[in-house]
Amino acid sequence: MDLRTQMNKRPTVTIGVSVGAVLIVGILVLVVSGRSRQRPPSSETSGANCYYTADEGKTFEVGPWTLVPPYEKDGKTFVRMYKFLDGKTEKIGYLEKYTDQACAVLMAEEEGQAREMKMSELGFNGRVVKRPGEETWVDRTSEEGKAITEVMTSEGRGRAKPVFPK
Questions:
Q1: Of 23, 92, 103, 164, which is least surrounded by CB within 10 A?
Q2: For the whole model, what pTM was predicted?
């Protein structure tokens, strides 16, 4: 007896098996999508690295996005730096660091996936920003912080394009 004949003779079993298969596939989809949401982004800037500077952007270096600025290196304090393309010219849009409280929370986590998850959970909370050369750091989520991070072209015709480390 072939499978089609057996399925026709027992419609309730056929329906039960079909519903079970659909449920299993649905559960697998939920598990896989849930895991992908829990992973931290590879970078807030679409790459694995970010720019960092200790001198308002005059010089910079590239490092992993998981560094927690401000951090000390070679006797200098580094913060994250965001570069943008204005026409054909690259410019420093703004600088960013974590607040003391956010740093404490992040540094309490073991380096690696636990810290990356905590960074993702914080999102923009616990970060302060400023333009190069300015003295005052402001909350990134405030209206003033949002204005700083919305880098416009020098002609004012739209947003400047972000430049990511290669």
A1: 23
A2: 0.69
